[in-house]
């Protein structure tokens, strides 16, 4: 015969187990909310379980692989400034009002606006230059605050590498226009490009534009007739990539960019961090935070995958003969 005390202990143990399992089930079933904001693309390209936007699709797939599935335990709030940078703060404020658990931003400027709006909601930045110099984080290893994520910044050498690739693809060029802001010429990346130009025997000059006005820069390039256009990675050049590519096409100018999207529009080539990989890694940050990690304790990561993209149709239209040794290094050729 089983003693009453033994039976009571068994009942209590089973009750505790049931409570524990119920708590775990409730935690697993809890629906979390994640906001993601793009700078220029329409929200329609971000929609659905298989978004048309390649980077959002990579982000959604990565979240799904980590167990965060829309319609089950995740609400994904998709937003875009659609090229109007002044909307950044308002969009973030809306997501904060919706009690979003994590906000994913793109670039330094948006992350700065987000941090101005909230110092409590975790912010995951994707891309952008030096987050330490911009004051977003205390250090890459120990961000502090509520911002962390992945940056495209690996040092000023990346811009110099881009110019070197341009020279390798077009060995006969001698003069290059740098299309950028004044800060793009004066900051460490700009100085690195100027030093690289000197080492490569290139004459480099600044075609300065403002965030919203390109006419003077385009007029200067038209007058000076350089052999190629080096487009800085400044955010306005991403927003205005079609304008820049159209100008280069009309003037039969080979161009190199920091963003592959410009090459997809008809620019000659681009070299930079693999943005799809950055968004997949951002999903990893979201997963960690939803599981209890603090952004202050998650180191900011730098890119590990870079891609060289070339538009062969553009090269043919411009009558360019790209060295075969260079073509073998291209990660993706657009035909």
List the helices and strands and how they pair.
Layout: H1 4-29, E1 32-38, H2 54-65, E2 74-80, H3 88-97, E3 102-106, H4 107-117, E4 123-126, E5 147-150, H5 157-169, E6 175-180, H6 182-186, H7 188-200, E7 203-208, H8 215-224, E8 228-231, H9 235-239, H10 241-250, E9 255-257, H11 260-264, E10 269-273, H12 275-290, E11 306-311, H13 312-317, H14 324-327, E12 332-334
Parallel strand pairs: 1-2, 1-3, 3-4, 4-5, 6-7, 6-8, 8-9, 9-10, 11-12
Antiparallel strand pairs: 10-11
Helix pairs in contact: 2-12, 3-4, 5-7
Throw out a few tags for this protein:
single chain; 335 residues; alpha/beta; 7-stranded mixed sheet; 12 strands
Any overview of this molecule?
Helices cover 44% and strands 18% of the residues. It has 14 helices and twelve strands. Helix 2 packs parallel to helix 12 and helix 3 packs across helix 4. The longest helix is centred in the first third of the chain and has 26 residues. The termini are far apart. About 3% of the residues have low confidence.
What is the gist of this entry?
The chain is of the alpha/beta class. The chain contains 14 helices and twelve strands.
